[in-house]
């Protein structure tokens, strides 16, 4: 293979879920089998790179200051589901059982990997609570050690006053978990499991 092909394959291999063989197949498909699709793909990537940003409120993908969910007046803006990553938000929306809004942390606490509160989208959530925007936090984080640590941190911050509630009063903190296997996360749960997890959430305060 040519150096340019190898460079493309290596770039594709760095994408999530794409291994060596998959990267090779995608590269061959674009360059050999369907080269007419390549300009369209490049143009779409360039357009998305210029237009897509993080929602200033929740951290979801957006093209305006607020994402479509935060800007939707029909959603309950006082009930906030906290997720680790945007794909988790997408999975929750696909389940169709939640009509509140979200907050994307863009990670979770992991001291062994050097990930602390300052590396997460935590300060924006703290500000939402302090402004009185939040009545309930639903923690939809992974059911593993790091997910538990992140849930514990958020709960302690709320209870300890570091994220003190605003004019709306005390914030209820709940945690989904019913139906999620040990060590599992939101992204890989099916819609029925996620609906059960939301309906069976427990007080985490």
Description:
The chain has 7 helices and 7 strands. The mean pLDDT is 86. It has helices spanning 3-13, 20-33, 37-51, 86-95, 122-130, 145-160, 191-199; strands at residues 53-54, 61-62, 76-83, 100-104, 136-139, 172-175, 202-203. Strands 4-3-5-6-7 form a 5-stranded mixed beta sheet. A two-stranded antiparallel sheet has the order 1-2. It has 205 residues and is of the alpha/beta class. The longest helix is centred in the last third of the chain and has 16 residues, at 145-160. Helix 1 packs across helix 2. Strand 1 (53-54) and strand 2 (61-62) form a beta hairpin. It folds into 2 domains: 3-51, Helicase, Ruva Protein, domain 3 (Orthogonal Bundle), CATH 1.10.8.420; 61-203, Dna Topoisomerase Vi A Subunit, Chain: A, domain 2 (3-Layer(aba) Sandwich).
Overview in brief:
By secondary structure, the chain is an alpha/beta fold. 41% of the residues lie in helices and 13% in strands.
In the sheet with the most strands, the strands line up as 4-3-5-6-7
Provide mean pLDDT, rounded.
Answer: 86
What order do the SSEs take from the amino end to the carboxyl end, as H and E? HHHEEEHEHEHEHE
Question: Termini, distance in Å?
Answer: 58 Å
Please describe the biggest sheet, giving its number of strands, its sense, and whether it closes into a barrel: 5 strands, mixed
The CATH class name of the largest domain reads: Alpha Beta
The helix content, as a percent range, equals: 40-55%
- The radius of gyration is 20 Å
* Structure summary, number of beta strands: 7
Could you say what the CATH topology of the largest domain is called?
Answer: Dna Topoisomerase Vi A Subunit, Chain: A, domain 2
| Count of the domains | 2
Q: How would you classify the helix and strand content by structural class?
A: alpha/beta
CATH architecture field of the largest domain? 3-Layer(aba) Sandwich
Gross morphology is: elongated
| Uncertain runs | none
